[in-house]
Write a structure and sequence with these properties.
By secondary structure, this protein is of the alpha+beta class. It contains ten helices and eight strands. A hairpin with a 2-residue loop joins β6 and β7. α3 packs across α4. Bound molecules: zinc ion (2 copies). The site of one zinc ion has 5 residues, from α5 and α6. One zinc ion binds next to α5 and α6.
């Protein structure tokens, strides 16, 4: 499906028309916004990696986005959203979160599945349906991964009192706040270890190889740095970790 999406970039809209935002362009804009929020410097290679498309496909898409005034490319190759591009990306992100919440809150879909499903559905939602979703679900609530609608960067998360699990102090209790949601395998890996939004955990020990020994609802588990760097936690009280 990703291959198909990258190919739609090639379908150029006729000249002298109002630019029509295709699915691919939307995906690019959203990926740039999300990569920025993860604190990543967005260059073509970042986008190729994030969207799992080839570098030439990215080059072509970025050229189109630039022509439409949706991105700027700095001399050092860094891709930045313009105000117009950011507006579209924000809209999509809001819609993505609403759909994730619909799947979770109305249909009871598991938290680790909703991102992929929302990626498919978000392109099919009409403004009318989106307004109804918003009226039903309300604003200002985190998505099932614990992430806020407004795309946050590491600095703004730290201002909210969050720390990366990778940097969490051993001997302390924490509550899982937000989880990087773009990697389904990571989410399932964490779910198997009872590391999910809202879950309580205790950091038992930081080991010599930088893995963490954690007490979670699944018992004592080990977590490597690459996973621990994808989980934001907040300090929690003294209450014991409940088995779930
Ligand atoms: Zn998502
Ligand atoms: Zn989410």
């Amino acid at each position: 499906m990703l291959v198909q999406r990258s190919l739609t970039v090639l379908n150029r809209a006729p000249y002298n028309t109002v630019p029509v935002i295709t699915v691919s362009k939307e995906d690019y804009l959203k990926a740039i916004l999300e990569a920025e929020s993860e604190g990543e410097r967005v260059i073509s290679a970042t986008l190729a990696h994030w969207l799992r498309v080839s570098p030439p496909a990215v080059t072509m898409a970025v050229r189109r986005l630039k022509k439409d005034g949706l991105v700027r490319v700095n001399p050092d190759g860094r891709v930045r959203l313009t105000a117009a591009g950011r507006k579209i990306a924000r809209k999509l992100t809001t819609r993505h979160h609403l759909i994730e919440r619909m799947l979770s809150e109305i249909f009871g879909m598991e938290w680790y599945k909703v991102h992929d499903e929302a990626e498919r559905l978000e392109h099919a939602v009409s403004p009318d349906f989106e307004a109804r979703l918003l009226a039903k679900l309300g604003r200002g609530v985190a998505c099932p991964h614990g992430n806020m609608t407004e795309v946050e960067n590491p600095a703004s998360r730290r201002r909210r009192g969050l720390v990366l699990l990778a940097q969490a102090e051993p001997g302390q209790n924490f509550e899982v706040s937000g989880i990087y949601e773009r990697d389904r395998r990571l989410l399932e890996f964490l779910e198997q270890r009872a590391i999910r939004p809202g879950a309580k955990l205790h950091v038992v020990h930081r080991n010599y190889d930088n893995t963490l020994t954690l007490a979670t609802g699944a018992g004592n588990v080990f977590l490597g740095l690459s996973a621990a760097e994808r989980v934001w936690v907040r300090a929690a009280g003294k209450n014991a970790v409940a088995k779930s």
